[in-house]
Design a protein that fits this description.
Blueprint: H1 4-17, H2 34-52, H3 72-82, H4 85-97, H5 103-106, H6 108-113, H7 118-127, H8 136-162, E1 164-172, H9 182-188, E2 193-194, E3 199-200, E4 207-212, E5 217-224, H10 230-244, E6 249-256, E7 260-262, H11 270-276, H12 285-295, E8 302-308, H13 316-329, E9 332-337, H14 349-357, E10 361-363, H15 367-378
Length: 379
């Protein structure tokens, strides 16, 4: 009986290890058909790992697979066709961040072919300070597309949650999921209940109305821009731009590491904010909160959102004292734990716990969930 399982294992190992493993694997591991295309795409990127370590192929071995057979733009096109979107996004990010394929940014066609993703945006922000000036146009174009993609996904959630609170005593004809009134919907459709099947037919759907707020809220976004915060800075710039365009909300955008910069005048331009941000350096959260404290004129109508990994490099007692003062003044304090490129939380739980004990609500949220949280605290 053919050893199909053995051949499949050998095939998979061959794709994982690359063409440099040919001499060590059995003949059953040799590639054919679509696997050759996969080999081209993966080899173009990951053979750089071998060559960086001094490995070389024997003369004449695999000449048709050399990276020179592909260009950046054709590699992108082939890779996009061969792999699922999530895999393609990871490959393009590693190409730039890990293997220095900055020709993807120098070529306008290649830059346009990149898939906009938060992972790619964060990678570019981390690298931006080390890239040559002639690549800035490509970086800006890609970041603009990443920002536009995120805005398109989350803007509606901010609008629905922040333009007004739900009025449970007044019906609305606006068919928004956030306004869905399940109690009134059930009551309006009881006549369509089928006892035999136990199912309720829904003919009339009811929604809550939303009431515009009469008084504006001030929202201060205090964003840590230390070296580990690229993804959070990206999301924060997007949130600030959306908030800046909403009636009834006055947004302040503050970025900090060991110094503080007020970018409120750029809050409606997230691309410029991100091209201005200087990721790296230490972290002085206490100093940043002391700066924000001076900006607050209506404590009871102010939300201060600290976006940080809470890894305080300054004075922890000064940080805790600032949080206590702000809470006692009536400021609503939100602490958003840093998110990595995969939107997973990473923060110092010890400091986070101390902040929570002094009245700051702590959570790790993506932008759409942050919109819901703001809607709750401002409702």
């Amino acid at each position: 009986m053919p050893d199909n399982d053995g051949r499949e294992r050998a095939r998979r190992w061959r794709l994982v290890l690359g063409r440099y493993a040919d001499a060590s694997l059995a003949a059953s591991a040799h590639l054919a058909g679509t696997d050759v295309d996969l080999e081209h795409a993966l080899g173009y990127l990951y053979d750089r790992e071998y060559t960086a370590r001094g490995h070389r192929l024997a003369p004449g071995a695999g000449g048709s697979l050399d990276p020179s057979a592909l260009t950046a733009i054709t590699w992108l096109e082939r890779t996009r066709a061969l792999f699922p979107r999530s895999t393609f996004e990871r490959l393009q990010t590693q190409a730039i961040e890990r293997y220095g394929m900055t020709d993807l940014l120098a070529d306008p066609a290649a830059a346009r072919a990149l898939e906009p993703s938060p992972q790619l945006g964060a990678a570019l922000l981390n690298l931006r300070g080390r890239l040559d000036a002639h690549l800035e146009a490509g970086v800006r174009e890609v970041i603009a597309r990443v920002v536009a993609d995120i805005v398109a996904r989350v803007r509606a959630n901010f609008t629905q949650n922040l333009l007004g609170r739900r009025d449970r005593f007044r019906r609305s004809v606006q068919p928004l999921a956030a306004n869905f009134d399940w109690r009134r919907t059930i009551a309006a459709n009881l006549g369509h209940y089928d006892p035999a099947t136990g199912k309720l037919g829904v003919e009339h759907v009811r929604f809550h109305a939303r009431v515009k707020r009469s008084l504006p809220w001030d929202v201060v976004l205090c964003v840590d821009q230390s070296g580990s915060m690229a993804a959070s800075v990206l999301y924060s710039a997007v949130c600030a731009s959306i908030l800046a365009g909403l009636p009834g909300v006055n947004v302040r955008l503050i970025l900090f590491d060991t110094s503080v910069v007020d970018l409120t005048h750029l809050a409606d331009d997230p691309v410029t904010v991100l091209m201005t941000a200087q990721l790296g350096g230490g972290t002085d959260i206490a100093g940043a909160l002391a700066f924000c404290e001076q900006l607050i004129t209506k404590p009871s109508r102010t939300v201060l959102a600290l976006i940080s990994d809470f890894e305080e490099g300054g004075s922890v007692p000064a940080l805790l004292a600032a949080v206590t003062r702000l809470r006692e003044a009536g400021v609503t304090l939100l602490g958003l734990a840093a998110l990595d490129e995969e939107a997973e939380a990473r923060y110092d739980p010890r400091i986070g716990g101390m902040l929570a004990d002094r009245g700051m609500r702590i959570a790790a949220l993506t932008p759409d969930r942050f919109a819901e949280w703001l809607g709750e605290v401002m409702g």
